[in-house]
Every structure is written in structure tokens, then in C-alpha cells.
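Field reference: sequence -> structure
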Amino acid sequence: MNTTTFDSNDLKQFDEPANLLKALSHPIRLCIVRGLMRKKKCNVSYMQECLGLPQSTVSQHLQRLRSTGIVATERNGLEVNYVIADPRIEQIVTILFGEDDCES
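Structure field:
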């Protein structure tokens, strides 16, 4: 068996994927992402109604998803919509839930 030792530089390649998975690991954030996959874009008010959560809670979860590059915003006048920004996320969520559960 060939064992290879890693130095800290080798481990850095795992930082970004690990951060994406950490951001997805909360049930509310996972639900938000799956909802965005179905609807394609959505504003905070709509998400708040669907989730039955305070606007501030939804905004905090969206901020975490934005900071990791999972979602991005699109402005249409005064309305701000959220969209999936990283196509890898759609692949991950589809694997977790199955294709039928993630389609509109």
C-alpha cells in the first residue's frame, strides 16, 4: 500500500469544497437552495412565506450562501432576486434528493 504524506499546501485544495459543504449542511439553507433550483430565482419575501420564518432569519441564511458563492443576487428595479451561482451546487443537491425532487 502506497501512503502519501500531505503537507499543508496539499490540504488547502480541500478548503473551498469543504466550505461549500458546510454552508449546505444547514437544513434551512439546503431547503433554500433546492427551492431556488425549482423556481430559478426568488426574492426574500417569497422565501419567508414558503419557509414560515422571519425575514431576518432567511436573510442570515442567504448571506451565508452568498458569502460562499452558492447564490448570487439579481436586481430588477427595487426587487432583489436570488439565483444559484455555482452549478456544482445543483449537481450536489440533485445527488442528495434525486432529479425528480429538484425539478420544477
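Note: The longest helix spans residues 27-39.
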